[in-house]
Write a structure and sequence with these properties.
single chain; about 475 residues; alpha/beta; eight-stranded mixed β-sheet; metal ion binding; transmembrane helix; P_typ_ATPase; transmembrane
Length: about 475
């Protein structure tokens, strides 16, 4: 792809491909928009792999008026429609020049009504739909932006477009695209300054999309869902308590717990997770670009995933609250035990919530390294040091002074065995569905089916071409029914 230096644009229309092509990554339509003349642009397209070897080229160029353009589009469409079986096997590429494109897109060249203009655009888009790659040559900067706008408005839901350029002529289409990428090159830095992302070389694009793009979305989606989840668990337990406090303003947790839950006890692990988490290693993501397909249409932040996380939050809150409630009931907790007091009940419930939401984060993690391990251990140590501090030191903060000796009574008093049993049994009961769900996800993951699994010393060799092709065929067959 480094031979595309002379091209002004590499525009990618993100949709699934039925077959993998490294030069086209995961794009359904790959467009090259350039101001070069037709012969130069076609030579570079073939050399760069934009036009694959054996591709049948459809040329709609050098049309002098709207009628010629319309006739040419109709003729090419009719030829393709008359040979549906051959079209199913053959692959096509389209070449359009700037003058012809004006007749198809620019209203000033159409002396007819708006309906005729819409029909003309639809014909052009329909013809593009039969092709794998489109080359537009002799374009002006505004024409490049018009092409991007045309793709964005071509259907519903709207496609996601990515425009890549290296010169000032590419600025309009970089701004118009959903994602604009500018390259630092010999033509200056105008494109890089106008872009959303700037790259030093074009070859960095593959790693930026397939590795960083996938991991960034995976981390961001799970961080958002986890924040909703952990706060849902925390709030629902207080809602359940209101049914037993006659809906008074009394909270089950001390004010120091309310302050420290999000600020100290659950903040650091999710931050490190959002920085270090990787669903798949870099070698897997770069070897199989079609994995990127799985995050299309905001898959991980869908209403379905949001509902699943909320269901787990609801289940955890019920198990934690009523597990403590049962242990604190008559006949279970010994008379005089700390669980019979509001401060003791709230402290144990808070401790269990902290344990479960931390375990939930670990169950959702695929990348275990020193930073993750250190952060989890440090958070647990700091949390229980805070519990020990408020157990021995009187803090003049309203209800916080009531926590004096609470933790000592929980683990050393009459209810010590009950507390220890609760800290082991209740979290295990709560996370059993999470373990099953994680196992089901991994068992239906095509990479795990192939033999790769995080933590194993032996994994699939993705450089082995037969194995790689087998993975691609599995992934394609499993995602044919995916809504995109």
């Amino acid at each position: 792809m480094s031979t595309l230096n002379s091209l002004a644009l590499y525009l990618t229309y993100f949709s699934p491909l039925s077959s993998l092509n490294k030069s086209q990554l995961i794009a359904k339509y790959t467009w090259v928009l350039t101001g070069d003349k037709e012969e130069t642009a076609m030579n570079v397209s073939f050399l760069s792999g934009h036009f694959a070897p054996g591709l049948s080229i459809i040329r709609v160029t050098k049309k002098m008026n709207p009628l010629e353009c319309s006739t040419a589009l109709d003729n090419e469409l009719n030829n393709l429609k008359l040979k549906p079986q051959e079209h199913g096997k053959a692959k096509y590429g389209l070449v359009v020049d700037g003058q012809t494109l004006n007749f198809a897109l620019n209203k000033s060249y159409l002396c007819f009504c708006d309906i005729i203009q819409v029909i003309q655009k639809n014909r052009f888009l329909e013809l593009c739909g039969y092709t794998e790659a489109v080359l537009c040559c002799r374009l002006t900067p505004m024409q490049k932006a018009e092409v991007v706008r045309l793709i964005k408005q071509s259907r519903s839901p709207a496609p996601v477009t990515c425009a890549i350029g290296d010169g000032a002529n590419d600025v309009p289409m970089i701004i118009e695209a959903n994602v604009g990428i500018g390259l630092f090159g010999k033509e200056g830095r105008q494109a890089a300054r106008a872009s959303d992302y700037a790259l030093g070389k074009f070859r960095f694009l593959r790693r930026a999309l397939l590795f960083h793009g996938f991991n960034f979305y995976w981390r961001s989606a799970n961080v958002v869902l986890y924040f909703f989840y952990k706060n849902l668990v925390f709030v629902l337990t207080q809602a359940y308590f209101s049914f037993y406090s006659q809906f008074s303003t009394q909270t089950v947790f001390s004010s120091i717990y309310l302050l420290s839950y999000n600020m100290i006890m659950t903040s650091s692990p999710i931050v490190v997770y959002g920085i270090m988490e990787m669903r798949y290693p870099e070698t897997v993501l770069l070897s199989i670009p079609m994995i990127y397909k799985s995050i299309s249409r905001n898959t991980f932040l869908s209403w379905r995933n949001f509902a699943i996380w909320n269901i787990f939050g609801l289940w955890h809150s019920i198990v934690l609250f009523y597990g403590c409630y049962v242990l604190a009931g008559e006949g279970v907790s010994k008379p005089g035990g700390a669980l019979e007091t509001l401060s003791g009940f709230g402290s144990m419930l808070f401790s269990l919530i902290f344990i479960v939401v931390t375990v939930k984060l670990l169950l959702n993690s695929y990348s275990f390294n020193f930073m993750v391990f250190f952060t989890i251990v440090a958070t647990v140590v700091v949390t229980y040091l805070i519990f020990a501090f408020i157990n021995f030191v009187v803090i003049p903060m309203g209800d916080v002074r009531d926590l004096i000796e609470t933790w000592g009574n929980l683990f050393c008093g009459a209810s010590a065995m009950t507390s220890l049993f609760g800290h082991i049994g209740i979290p295990v009961l709560a996370v059993v569905p999470d373990v099953i769900y994680r196992w089901l996800l991994d068992s239906h993951d095509f990479v795990h089916d192939s033999g790769y699994c995080p933590g194993r010393k032996k994994s699939v060799n993705l450089k082995d071409e037969p194995m790689r092709k087998s993975l691609l065929s599995k992934f394609s067959s499993k995602n044919n029914e995916m809504r995109v």
